[in-house]
Amino acid sequence: MYTQSNMMLKSAMNNKGEFDNSRGRDMLWLCRKVSDISAYLFRKDLDKPISTDCGIIDVPDNEILPTYYYSKDAESLRHSPPGRIKRLITEITSLKTGLSKGIFVKHASSRLDIMKIVIVGPEDTPYENGLHEFDLFCPRNYPNEPPKVWFRGNMVCRTQMFNPNLHPDGKVCLSLLGTWDDPPWQPGQSTIL
């Protein structure tokens, strides 16, 4: 809870308008209390920082955008509808403690809707030790519509299909993304995680 609360507080500082109502202020008050209590209970050495290394980091926007597949979509989105950034803050906060081993995410510091993801192929699978890179963009109507995901792959993956859901042209086919049959994205339930 310490990690989630601190992530929520940090992100709220950069997006104050998203929390400028009674629910938002209550959420931030609760996050402050959880953060304070956690720090008090779990830190015996106050000079030693609590580890938050969990596979997700924020980086300056210019470290992502030059090679980002959805950069034109991101550049055209100048204003975010109310609630969108708050939802992204909540989801990234969940990613801080919910990522599986071998999944690494970096998001743009000022644009939580811009992410690069690397998945290391799990042991004892045909994908073992492979590095699988994806670009993820949450469009204007997110979370009412699914994120966009582009498979960047590597040279081997770009010349031949090695998974039926990952195409050599970069298309990712999943029902949650609306690119495959089966249960679709559900705005109130589906998440990036």
TrEMBL record:
Keyword Chaperone: no
One Pfam assignment: UQ_con
SUPFAM superfamilies from the UniProt entry: UBC-like
UniProt keyword terms in alphabetical order: Transferase, Ubl conjugation pathway
Ranges of residues in domain UBC core: 83-193
GO molecular function, one term: ubiquitin conjugating enzyme activity
PANTHER family associated with the record: (E3-INDEPENDENT) E2 UBIQUITIN-CONJUGATING ENZYME
Protein name: UBC-like protein
Source lineage: Eukaryota, Fungi, Dikarya, Ascomycota, Pezizomycotina
